[in-house]
Amino acid sequence: xxxxxxxxxxxxxxxxxxxxxxxxxxxxxxxxxxxxxxxxxxxxxxxxxxxxxxxxxxxxxxxxxxxxxxxxxxxxxxxxxxxxxxxxxxxxxxxxxxxxxxxxxxxxxxxxxxxxxxxxxxxxxxxxxxxxxxxxxxxxxxxxxxxxxxxxxxxxxxxxxxxxxxxxxxxxxxxxxxxxxxxxxxxxxxxxxxxxxxxx
Length: 200
Description:
By secondary structure, this protein is an all-alpha fold. The protein has helices spanning 6-19, 25-31, 34-44, 48-56, 63-71, 76-99, 105-131, 145-161, 172-198; strands at residues 166-167, 170-171. The chain has a single domain, classed as Four Helix Bundle (Hemerythrin (Met), subunit A), CATH 1.20.120.1760.
């Protein structure tokens, strides 16, 4: 859904991409591992506001692709590396709530599974279509990675502001992640339905 805003985000990051124009894009991708780890550490120590500041820097993961295109060094491995690091980040920023005791693993484990399925179904659909001679984008569904990260951010922000507030007997972070789990399940269904239509 929010992927349509990507061109505007890239435009705002152009000055920073220009500063990094001589760096190896893969090095920039690897640097993207730092922010999920810092986020994990901050949440584990109860530094929720610092964690939110660090979380914003996850949006810089577009820089590697921008620099690669500017250098004319877009490679299949670069895309593979970027996607792999994204999966690491996805796990880290969700699983930390379980390790920190903020959200039950009974909710987080299905959410992590659905997060990975959302990504897998897209890549598998596009690969299957490509092998059949068709190039397509399978980024369909109500919740893609951008929406998921925003909801995680909002959930933690609400918890940081209202740590004792509860809805349905659960803290606000749990409520937001429960909604995210439901929307992620819908997204998986939408992507399976899309794959069924285009791969027949």
